[in-house]
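Sequence in, structure out. Go.
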Amino acid sequence: MPKPGEAVPRPRSTVRADLLLLAIAISGISLSAPLIAATTAPALAIAFWRNAMAVGALTPLALTRHRAELFTLGRRNLLLAVAAGALLAVHFGVWLPSLHMTSVASSTALVTTTPIWTTLLMRLRGHRPPALVWAGTALAFLGVVILTGVDLSLSSRALAGDALALAGGMAAAGYVLLGAEVRRTTGTVTYSYVCYGTTAVLLLAVCLLSGAPLAGYSGGTWLKLALLTVTAQLLGHSLINRVVKGLGPSVTSTAILLETPGAALIAALWLGQTPPVASYPALAVIVAGLGLVIMADRLGKKS
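Output:
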């Protein structure tokens, strides 16, 4: 019987399929930052619409093919899915504003501390991650540091932005762990529907309280919001929700670090932003770290 947070042993072909889906998910979320940068709408409004549109896209499927599971979800799984949605709302709500308060490099590096907090939370829950998980997590995060430079400022505004980004990384860790727990017995569509619905409602409240405009955008902006929903939300987050059941939170959260070099490469091709010289060695370091975490996961299942 696997411990809480551990992946269930499965055939190699299934694991390879999940790794392929994870690669597609990382490609999807890598489009997030470039699309947000190219979208002329408030950051919180963008976060709201990507979740609200995802709920709209999932509604026909959730209320037809997954209706029975949705209405028999159970109190525990419902509360956990709602809690995961609340943490996802916190992640978006604190990280996106931090991009305007501190450097993008610092914000990106601090928000991607997610695998560190994931590993620590798993330790607090009684699961003892092997040394290879700690080493792989540290190595992968080092790759992000190499890429971003992590230039921390001493100004009070920048430090506040750094704190928000760090909080975003912590919230994302809780989101991944809660998702892994719910997905042990609940389908991807049902879980994602409840999670995104909670996130959308909470972000809507924040947008209304802060006065962020939710309409009046150009057709091009709405098109970018729709593209963001399909790529970063439905392909990105939803596939992450799909594979976290089998791959486990350690592998999944560490792989999310690949979003940083992925976004840099996409920005270079689409927005004409030349990637830093450190992009390619940083990518190699992140992949090496992820490889160690996957190796530790495979060895753990054999023991």
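Check: Residues 219-255 form the longest helix (37 residues). The two ends are 13 Å apart (CA to CA).
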